[in-house]
Specification:
Layout (H helix, E strand, L loop, with lengths): L9 H11 L6 H8 L3 H10 L1 H6 E3 L5 E3 L14 E6 H6 L2 H15 L9 H22 L8 E8 L7 E9 L2 E8 L6 H8 L2 H8 L4 E8 L6 E5 L6 E6 L4 H8 L4
Helix pairs in contact: 2-3
Amino acid sequence: MSVRLLSFSAEERAVYSLISVSDGLMAKEIASRLSLSRKEVNHLLFSSPLMRELCYEDDAFRWHALIRQGPVHEGLYEVSGWYGIVREFVDTDEEEWLCSLQDGCRRIGRNLNDQRGLIHSFLDCREVMRSLFRDLSSMTDSSFLDWEIAFELRLNRSRMIRIYADVLVIAPGHVFSLEFKMKDKVDPDEVLQSAKYCPFLELIFGPSFEIIPALVLTAASDYFDFVPIGRTDMVLPAASGDMLFNVFNEYLGFLG
């Protein structure tokens, strides 16, 4: 699925893309590489919501992206409740994982109010993901253990751009953005919610990755389908926890 980035100009996207693949660039370097004026670049760096949310300037006046594009996405830890590779996740017991997630949520400013069963939803999500990786271990080779995984991604530093994700799974060429609901039926509003942050995730991860939003219904069983996104001709996958492997197979094709 692809959503057009109507909110950002081509110049904004070009500047962000260059910053995100670099080790730190000064404004004059950005201007030179993109054949833009220094004034135009400075205006974008200091006034664009995209730059204010996803980039920062260090003491040497060099600009960096919060999340660097690369084989390992440096910076995801700083904006996630829990981040690591799948191997680390499956080898971490429940209590240790939950404590680490809660600590990470406090670090990123995630509200841990448990009045609506938040901790239960965390554990529900953990069990579904562990079940998914057990399924994958019986269907494909063990390369998935080296995928990246992030729980409770929260990016809203300036509150001008908000990027939330329950779970991100970063596989070769694909980023699966999973929205979890402890329900057994598809709600159209929750489908829209699942797709909401795709444009920003496309920016963060760059053209080498396809963003796959999906809705996960943890109270359902034996369910997998593609559902419409609002009043558009686009669809996204929705699955029960026990059928989540179908979402990954649809795009990675490990079942042949």
